[in-house]
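User: Predict structure, ligand CO-5-methoxybenzimidazolylcobamide.
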Amino acid sequence: MANLDSLYQAVLSGNLQDTIEITNEAVAENIAPDNIINQYMVPAMNEIGRRFEEGDAFVPELLMSARAMKGALEILKPLMSGESATSLGKVVIGTVKGDLHDIGKNLVASMLEGCGFEVINLGIDVPDEVFVSAVKEHSPQIVCMSTLLTTTMNQMQSVIEALKNAGIREQVKVMVGGAPVSEQFALQIGADGFSSNANSAVYKAKELLNCV
Ligand code: B1M
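Assistant: Predicted complex:
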């Protein structure tokens, strides 16, 4: 039987091999990906973040935990696919300029994809003009922006301004998310929606496109 408490420890200590092994066992036992991610891996990432903040862990440890979690997500991603045959809409997603965090953003992208959205993932450290040209090129219904750093939150407003300046703000709904982002901040910068996690991001996206 998969020892999910050891999964927490494996991600926390950045042990990729154990993380992959236990994730494979959990998958073989039909444990829901959502459960594996939210009950065990996300708390481990929060704990390593807490230790970092307290000065008890350093960037290399953050990187190792991130590598372990990403390894497990590679296994879980195909299982997060839904049954939708038709696309609910197109989403462009990226982590804003100056921010290199991508685990949460990729989780949101996978959930959206799994639930029937076509997703164009622009990656990390995405400059305003790349969001703008992606909207022009792909004509998505939604732009999702992610950031985990308080220092890069204002970059989200800058992207919204860039969309306005390019005359395409009204063509897309803008959703924002990431640990320091709140509903109030989303309203303040003129975004159309906010979500605090990958599940609610899917719900919000559907709501914005009137398909709930
Ligand atoms: Co960084 N880091 N980090 N880090 N890191 C945080 C964010 C931090 C909170 C740690 C801490 O101090 N407690 C802190 C930010 C403090 C702040 O700004 N207030 C921090 C810092 C300071 C830094 C550096 C500055 C450290 C340094 O170099 N001195 C540096 C910055 C580099 C940069 O970006 N320019 C840095 C670097 C890194 C690593 C590269 C080592 C690594 C990232 C690796 C990677 O992503 N590939 C890393 C990590 C791993 C973390 C923590 C520990 C974990 C982040 C994570 O993956 N969480 C993090 C601490 C923490 O979060 N508790 C921390 C798991 C993930 C599933 O959750 O990303 O929150 P999350 O995503 C959620 C929701 O937020 C939401 O849904 C997701 C899924 O449920 N969501 C969205 C996210 N995006 C969304 C978009 C949407 C909707 C929902 O669109 C609509």
